[in-house]
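STRUCTURE:
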């Protein structure tokens, strides 16, 4: 089975902070966010709710997309999330 790469946006329960990341195992990565496994931004701001993700076949495609999303405004990120997930429900459950 070919490897897949995921670009994702996660937030906290109040949807006040957005985090854009990249992983090759979205389920594992969201479990790490929920368990606050690593110190840093996501632990500090309680980022544990998956609200958007995209799938790519190559790491290069995923990295380029992650950079594109990170370079966009907060409004663009919110519009992207709302295009598929207007209620900001947790897609990891």
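SEQUENCE:
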């Amino acid at each position: 089975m070919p490897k897949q790469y995921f670009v994702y946006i996660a937030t906290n329960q109040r949807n006040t902070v957005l985090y854009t990341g990249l992983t090759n195992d979205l389920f594992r990565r969201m479990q790490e966010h929920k368990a606050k496994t690593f110190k840093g931004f996501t632990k500090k701001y309680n980022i544990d709710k998956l609200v958007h993700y995209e799938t790519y076949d190559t790491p290069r495609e995923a990295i380029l997309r992650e950079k594109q999303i990170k370079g966009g405004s907060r409004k663009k990120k919110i519009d992207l999330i709302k295009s598929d997930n207007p209620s900001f429900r947790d897609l990891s459950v």
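REMARK: The chain has a mean pLDDT of 96.
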